[in-house]
Amino acid sequence: MNVDIHPSWKSYLEEEFNKPYFKNLVDFVKSEYQNHTCFPPGKKIFNAFNHCYFNDVKVVIIGQDPYHGPGQANGLCFSVNDDIVHPPSLINIFKEIETDLGIPYPKSGNLIRWSEQGIMLLNATLTVRAHNAGSHQKKGWEIFTDTVIKIISEHKTDVVFLLWGGYAKQKTKLIDKKKHHILTSGHPSPLSANRGYWFGNKHFSKTNNILRDLKISQIKW
């Protein structure tokens, strides 16, 4: 696995790439991709970094694990490739945007369009074995992505962090609350959304209101 990551991130993460845990992680991921079907495709593992450059980050959304079905994962949390059926969590995200902002439900579930506007769509674990959710957890990815969150918190100001569900909310401790904006809610998965913990959070209008007040260009959700 080559760490094919945009130069804007390299100076901040170079030290991390040289740590023993990361070298062990690379060996593990290489072996998994050689011996099993894994997602996302190797070239898309660092897509979140390659479509949202460090200087452009203004919103961070944290997911847990890539989708593990064929053709779904494209390296951005909650996002799927064009022409792929939208998974339930993504459906609920788009429904909330529709209610919150009056934006029609989109045909494509590919969130690269968000990424390129400065939204860091970061999964805590960047790879997964096919049909085996969580199979690459606790191998080192979480150490790496926690460091990414800390680096964003430390080196930037006024970033909007959207933490959906219990797992993402645990990342609050990595973020300087005095410098940044944290919005939390239940997870968009049907289990949480149908219990009333997701719909009506208005995170999309709230994010744009924060960006507007900061005189930063708003997101076209």
TrEMBL record:
Q: What are the GO BP annotations of this UniProt entry?
A: base-excision repair, AP site formation via deaminated base removal
Q: Which GO terms describe its cellular component?
A: cytoplasm
Query: Where in the numbering of this chain does the Uracil-DNA glycosylase-like domain appear?
Result: 50-211
Q: Enzyme class, one word?
A: hydrolase
Q: Which key words tag this protein in UniProt?
A: Cytoplasm, DNA damage, DNA repair, Glycosidase, Hydrolase
Report the superkingdom from the record.
Answer: Bacteria
| Listed transmembrane segments | none
Tell me yes or no: is Ribosomal protein among this UniProt entry's keywords: no
Q: What is its EC number?
A: 3.2.2.27
Q: Where in the cell is it found?
A: Cytoplasm
Answer whether the UniProt record assigns the keyword ATP-binding to this protein: no
Molecular function terms from GO: uracil DNA N-glycosylase activity
What is catalyzed by this enzyme?
Hydrolyzes single-stranded DNA or mismatched double-stranded DNA and polynucleotides, releasing free uracil
Residues of the active site = 65 (proton acceptor)
Q: Which family does it belong to?
A: Belongs to the uracil-DNA glycosylase (UDG) superfamily. UNG family.
Q: What does this protein do?
A: Excises uracil residues from the DNA which can arise as a result of misincorporation of dUMP residues by DNA polymerase or due to deamination of cytosine.
**Name of this protein:** Uracil-DNA glycosylase
Give the organism the record lists. Seonamhaeicola sediminis
Which gene does this sequence derive from? ung
